[in-house]
Each structure stands twice: as C-alpha cells, then as structure tokens.
C-alpha cells in the first residue's frame, strides 16, 4: 500500500527510552495533521486532527488512504454521527474515530488485544487531540467480556479487509455487533483489488446486505485525492433480516 500524504507533516523524530540502564531501540515517529472542511488546508479548515505515526512499526501505526477517505466521509456525514455510539474496529491510528469524536460522537476505538504498542499509541493520540474515547483491546473472532457491552449505532472499519485468513473472524465480529445493536450499520473503506464480488460473498455468507456503495474518490476533496492512490470503495452494510444466520462449521 501507499501511505496517505497529509496536509501537514512534521519532520520524523527519533525517540529513545531506558530499560534496566540500557537504551531502547530508536523509534522514528512523526505527527501528521489532517484537515476537514473549508479548503482542508492549514490556513482554511473547520476541524484538525493530529496523528502520531511510527514510520518503522507495523501497519497499525500508519495513516493509510482508506482511513483518510473514511474520515472524510464521517466529516461530511457528521450530523448522523453527532450523539451516536461509534465503535471503530482495527482502529490503528484511529483517524475516522477521532473525527467522529470531534463532532460529538461517543467513540470506542479498538484494535488487536495483544498489540499494546498500537493501543498505547491510540491513547496518546486521543490525548493529543483532547478527546475522551474508550480504548479497548478487541481481537476479531474472540468473545471476551468487553465485546458484550458494545452497542454501537455505527461500526467503522478502514482497510480491515486486507488479510483473507481473518475475513471470517472479522465478519463474525461485525455480525455479532450488528445483532447486539438493532438498527446499527457497518461502514468500511477497502481497496477493491479483486472486484466487489468478494465483499458480496462475505455479506451473503454472514446474512448481511449492502445499503450503499460509493467510489471513495467521488466525495473526496481534490486536494486530498491528489495525494492518494488505489481503487478504494466505501460500503455501508446492515443485517439482512430475512437471511441472518451464522454459517455452519462445514
């Protein structure tokens, strides 16, 4: 994947730490600024979100194009997010969820439970942006106690369809949350590498239906679109009440 270029990015900084008297490995971090509304620039915007990125860590520490597009969608649809309960799955740097929090949503940001580096970065980013979000370790397909307390109106997921080995765990989690939250929807952006038939197959398998399908660049301001690459789709998904069922183990 190509990383998303932000409107303003600070120079990378090397961070060191001490552990038992020895220096910890260098961590190369940067803070990227993301603008919404107005001209989406540092001089003309309505909302700014700052993200701490680690340029030498795993995928969860970068702002990817799908995240930029989903965050823009949240901003443009902000009236439906204000006052809503939001859960972001695989949040990583959490740009879409942070935009939702900034416009008045009650937001829970989740990522893999054992990925403490990413979860700690999410907490730092929340503090940097002065938002009060719940940060929760949630691994797809695992039924730990915290998931039963989640009742979102909207589930967000940016570029969560990247590993086919995890698709069933992801959709099991999505389906559970939708069933646990009548009327909820799942909104995701994904790279359309093999055609929409893949997500159609998963929706049918898990008793879901498509409410909306958009080209991710169709609503993106030109200043942001110019720095992104890929064939990115946005889809809104809900339970298909006539077909909802858990797949058999066969």
Automatic annotation (TrEMBL):
InterPro entries: Methyltransf_16. CDD domains: AdoMet_MTases (cd02440). GO terms for biological process: methylation. Residues 1-23 are annotated as: Disordered. Residues 1-11 have a biased composition (Low complexity). Keywords: Methyltransferase, S-adenosyl-L-methionine, Transferase. One of its GO terms (molecular function) is methyltransferase activity. One of its GO terms (cellular component) is nucleus. PANTHER family: HEPATOCELLULAR CARCINOMA-ASSOCIATED ANTIGEN, HISTONE-ARGININE METHYLTRANSFERASE METTL23. This is Methyltransferase-like protein 23. It comes from Zizania palustris (Northern wild rice). The lineage of its organism: Eukaryota, Viridiplantae, Streptophyta, Embryophyta, Tracheophyta.
């Amino acid at each position: 994947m190509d990383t998303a270029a932000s409107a303003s990015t600070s120079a990378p900084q090397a961070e060191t730490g001490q552990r038992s008297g020895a220096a910890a490995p260098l961590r190369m971090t940067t803070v990227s600024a993301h603008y919404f509304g107005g001209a989406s620039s540092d001089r003309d915007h309505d909302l700014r979100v700052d993200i701490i990125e680690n340029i030498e860590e795993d995928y969860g520490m970068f702002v990817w194009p799908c995240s930029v597009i989903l965050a823009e969608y949240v901003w443009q649809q902000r009236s439906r997010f204000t006052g809503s309960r939001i859960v972001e799955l695989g949040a990583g740097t959490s740009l879409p969820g942070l935009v939702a929090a900034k416009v008045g949503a009650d937001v829970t940001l989740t990522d893999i439970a054992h990925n403490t580096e990413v979860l700690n970065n999410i907490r730092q980013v929340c503090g940097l942006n002065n938002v009060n979000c719940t940060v929760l370790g949630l691994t797809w397909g695992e039924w730990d106690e915290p998931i039963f307390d989640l009742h979102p109106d909207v589930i967000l997921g940016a570029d969560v369809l990247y590993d086919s080995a995890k698709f069933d765990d992801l959709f099991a989690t999505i389906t559970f949350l939708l069933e646990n939250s009548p009327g909820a929807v799942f909104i995701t952006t994904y790279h359309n590498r093999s055609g929409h038939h893949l997500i159609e197959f998963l929706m049918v398998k898990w008793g879901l239906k498509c409410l909306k399908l958009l080209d991710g660049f169709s609503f993106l301001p030109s200043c942001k679109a110019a720095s992104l690459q890929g064939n990115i789709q946005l889809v809104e998904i809900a339970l298909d009440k006539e077909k909802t069922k858990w797949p058999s183990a066969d």
